[in-house]
Design a protein that fits this description.
Strand 4 and strand 5 form a beta hairpin. The longest helix is centred in the first third of the chain and has 36 residues. The strands form four sheets. An eight-stranded parallel beta barrel has the order 11-12-13-14-15-16-17-19, surrounded by five helices. Strands 5-4-8-9-18 form a five-stranded antiparallel beta sheet. It has a four-stranded mixed beta sheet with strand order 6-7-1-10. The protein contains twelve helices and 19 strands. It has two domains: about 160 residues, no CATH class; about 325 residues, Glycosidases (TIM Barrel, Alpha-Beta Barrel). The protein is globular, with a radius of gyration of 23 Å. The protein has about 500 residues and is an alpha/beta fold.
């Protein structure tokens, strides 16, 4: 059992929201545990032996509410101080990254090293403090400074690497993408789309294509594909095989316990879609989120077989297209609550080792909702996670990225219920249009600085329709641009003119 004392401004806290909390075991794999708050302590009852770290959404002065993680700790009778262990965990990861990242700006490097040293000194003072209140205040200061310097380090490294990549002209022409909504949009929507992006991601939703068995509705997809083809706008198909509840037709559950039949039905779905659109689509997300979102309850071997089949059939029918295995919720916290899922790193490794033929990994980052995979992370964690997938020897496509521009509760969302953005955390303050724009700029600079990142796709263009993340569009409901849209257009113009 692990126990953590928690504080706010040096005083013990009376209540802690643990909806985001989970334990992390060996190799960063989330672990099952019962986590409760009682008598001023977070109590973690593990299901397995060995050291573990606690991850949870936590307020950091000046940086927002961010999902942070302690180091892995052994069990002991005395409770740990949470703020101190969060700061220790961040400083440990900072130390590792300082060795990985080379910074050319000696003055900046010296400044960052000084801040790291100051944070470490505060941590040491907290460890040596004579009373708990003083220790907690010092630990909170160490945590805030270490999170701030982590972001500064990430952005400084990204700026250096992005300048180098721009100088080498190491970008493809299809760099900035956006996912569209299937209902026929207005001319304004289309104009905003073509003015800001190099390619368009079209969702392939089986539930919409075949709402009843052998009864097909191709019109929304046909309309978009025909228009994009006329505009000579490159197209990517998303979610060719996805077992998210909103993508699976209701009639498919009849065969839930008959894997052979299900596999044949999935094969026919892939064949039917690619036969219809293969000549227009340049890239396919052949398997999207199979490791994490599994409404049909396939087991590990079945998911791997379906991933293999989706990649193989796509290659056979569209040999010149790019095949992408798409990952969601890359930190894998869902695995701590659902053992029928697969940790993302394990899934990626198995895809690589199983001889599945595919061209690239995809990765999605959506933050702002109080749901597993969508709690806010800071830029240091994001940069480190992109590196972790990029080092697997395959190109990486950021297939969806999104944060909100408003904290209002929304009652008409893609998740089928009322959601509150404030439950998902915050980055440098409450979500506003300007915060969204600053976050977008920081994220894109970090992602595009990585030499293995081929494309970045924003999830929803506008706040109209049945959106994925409330207030997450680059356009308001009346289709006027938010600051984030203007920031993205400026960034694209800054990078791509060298290719003209």
């Amino acid at each position: 059992m692990l126990r953590f004392r928690t504080h706010s401004n040096g005083d013990s806290t009376a209540k802690v929201d643990l909806s985001s909390a989970y334990l992390v075991g060996n190799d960063g794999v989330p672990a099952r545990a019962e986590i409760v708050f009682k008598n001023g302590e977070i109590i973690c009852r593990k299901r397995a032996s060995g050291p573990a770290g606690l991850a949870l959404l936590w307020p950091v002065n000046g940086m927002g509410r961010i999902l942070l993680q302690t180091t892995r700790l052994p069990e002991r009778d005395e409770p740990y101080m949470l703020e101190l262990e969060l700061a220790r965990g961040r400083l440990m990861r900072l130390s590792h990254k300082q060795e990985d990242w080379e910074l050319d700006d000696a003055h900046c490097l010296e400044s960052l090293a000084g801040q790291v040293a100051k944070s470490r000194d505060l941590l040491i003072e907290a460890l040596q403090a004579e009373d708990e209140a003083t220790a907690a205040r010092l630990a909170e200061q160490a945590l805030a400074l270490s999170v701030q310097v982590g972001e500064d380090l990430s952005l400084q490294h990204a700026g250096t690497a992005l300048a180098r990549r721009r100088q080498l002209k190491a970008f493809g022409r299809r760099l900035f993408g956006c996912r569209i909504e299937l209902p026929t949009p207005s001319d304004t929507y289309r104009r905003r789309l073509t003015n800001a992006f190099d390619f368009v991601t079209v969702p392939i939703c089986w539930r919409q294509i075949e709402p009843r068995e052998q009864q097909f509705d191709w019109k929304p997809l046909d309309t978009w594909v025909e228009w994009l083809a006329k505009k000579r706008m490159p197209i990517k198909g998303a979610g060719l095989v996805s077992f998210a509840e909103q993508d699976v037709p209701d009639w498919l559950y009849i065969w839930e316990h008959d894997f052979e039949t299900l596999r044949d039905l999935i094969y026919e779905h892939i064949r039917r879609v690619i036969s219809r659109y293969g000549e227009y689509v340049q890239a396919w997300d052949v398997a999207s989120g199979l490791h994490a979102v599994n409404a049909v309850s396939f087991n590990f071997e079945q998911l791997m077989e379906l991933t293999r089949m989706a990649a193989a059939v796509t290659r056979q029918l569209a040999p010149r297209s790019t095949t992408i295995v798409d990952m969601v919720a890359p930190w894998g916290e869902y695995y701590a609550r659902n053992q029928r899922t697969i940790p993302p790193m394990l899934y990626a490794d198995m895809v690589m080792q199983s001889g599945i033929t595919f061209d690239a990994f995809g990765m999605q980052f959506a933050f702002g909702l109080g749901k597993d995979g969508m709690y806010v992370r800071d830029m240091f964690q994001i940069s480190s996670m992109i590196d972790a997938f990029g080092h697997r020897g395959k190109p990486l496509h950021i297939t969806a990225v999104q944060v909100p521009s408003n904290v209002q509760t929304d009652k008409d969302d893609a998740w089928g219920g009322t959601v509150s953005i404030s439950d998902g955390g915050a980055w440098r303050g409450a979500w506003t249009e300007e915060t969204q724009a600053r976050w977008l700029e920081s994220f894109y600079e970090i992602a595009l600085s990585k030499p293995f990142v081929d494309t970045v796709t924003w999830r929803d263009l506008s706040d109209t329709g049945r959106h994925y993340l409330p207030h997450g569009g680059l356009l308001r409901s009346d289709l006027t641009p938010k600051p984030a849209y203007d920031r993205l257009v400026a960034l694209r113009k800054d990078i791509l003119p060298s290719y003209e």
